[in-house]
Amino acid sequence: MLSKIMGVFARPDFPLLLREHVVLSAVALLIAVAVALPVALLVRNTPLGATIAINVGNIGRAVPSLAILALALPFLGIGFASALVALTALAIPPILINASIGLREVRQDIIDAARGMGLSGGQILTRIQLPIAAPVIFAGIRTSAVQTVASATLATFIGAGGLGDLIVEGLQRRGPRYCSQGPSPSRSLRSSRSSASAGSRGPSPRRGCRSRRREEVVN
Amino acid sequence: MSDLALLQDVIGEPKLIDWNWLKDNFWEYIVPAFQGHIFLSSISIAIALVIALPVGILCARYRKAYPPVTVVTGILYSIPSLALFAILVAAGVNVGPTPVIIALVAYSLLILIRNTVAGIDAVPPETIDAARGMGLTSRQILFRVELPLALPIIVAGIRIATVTIIGIATIGAYIHGGGLGQLIFDGINRQFPTMIIAGAVLATALAIFADVVLLGLERYLRPWARARRA
């Protein structure tokens, strides 16, 4: 069992899939931070704006990750770009919620004291509000990061690769009754786009035999 | 179908929503998927509560047990759902609703246990002293004082867990767990946007509906918060 798992790490396509997974997650998270933080800063001094931002974030967090990824497919097509848009949309709500709450919870008397000491609005932001809110803001980014890396496994369903390819392949090799799909959309779609990468992706017959044997044991 | 045709079909599909298909398949396909989703989610949250409430109460009592419980449930929580489904299937659990329910229960444990402990912790010590002074046994204090006061925070946990579970349950359709994810995966397989949109929109609506209803319940159980907001 262990040697089989190590064998997967040694596959030629493993670094590629790992890189796809990391790039997809990291870029989505960066864009999400770049979108959510300015919005939270913008609404920090208006209670109504903060409430709206938090509520929008709460609704956004309720949307299932597979739903967003699948919805990207008919509108944006197959591949990296749609997965990136979907993962970014998934990554924004936790950051937006925590940043808005963190900035809102900075006590008003501290801000008043800072203003009394003659600090400008910008100084209050960088020296008072952001340092006090930082732990809550980073907690939001962390939640979002874990969730984005997890959701990136689903990118395989819309042909964007990542480590989800391996999971889906593993399920498919056990036979059609183990999962709801025939060929992985990722595999067939990407092989049509670049035949060069298709060669390295075909399952080796040796591993195929092994998985068949395992299936007999299970049944 | 060749790969190229498949690609063109997905991208070049002119009609996003085929209303006739929705009408024809409403009763025999969409409604059962919706019911299946509710079944999966509610049975999972029920099982998770049966486990999490006693564990949470024990953790609140015996503090040494809390860190290990948090570590284990925290690790379970961070496993990507598709990976957990695959691990359960590889471990020999037959595909179908069973591995999906196991995974959904595993995901909700962290949230439910954490909120149960936080809820009991939030009960003021003087309230418990007063109850003890009135002659209540510790069992009576638990059921008549601590748990009722902890209820809003526990319900807040149920709300987050339910929304999470409804979302993850869609992925369970990949290993034949049923539910609305079936529509999404079938839609991807057949390159039929109507099914994808129907499944995704219904799953989203169900999650938001559960969120709003449980948020209402949470507010109702927390009259002091309602007063502050007004």
Task: Describe the structure concisely.
Chain A has helices at residues 2-9, 14-42, 47-62, 65-76, 80-104, 108-116, 121-151, 164-173, 185-193, 195-201, 205-218. Chain A is mainly α and 219 residues long.
Care to describe what's here?
The complex is a heterodimer of chains A (219) and B (230). Chain A is mainly alpha-helical and 219 residues long. Chain A has one domain: Orthogonal Bundle (MetI-like fold), CATH 1.10.3720. In chain A, 78% of the residues lie in helices and 0% in strands. Chain A has helices at 2-9, 14-42, 47-62, 65-76, 80-104, 108-116, 121-151, 164-173, 185-193, 195-201, 205-218. In chain A, α3 (47-62) packs across α5 (80-104), α4 packs across α5 (80-104) and α9 (185-193) crosses α10 (195-201). Chain B is an all-alpha fold and 230 residues long. Chain B has one domain: MetI-like (MetI-like fold, Orthogonal Bundle), CATH 1.10.3720. Chain B is built from ten helices and no strands. In chain B, α5 (97-121) packs antiparallel against α7. The longest helix of chain B has 43 residues, at 19-61. The termini of chain B are far apart. The chains are: A mainly alpha (219), B mainly alpha (230).
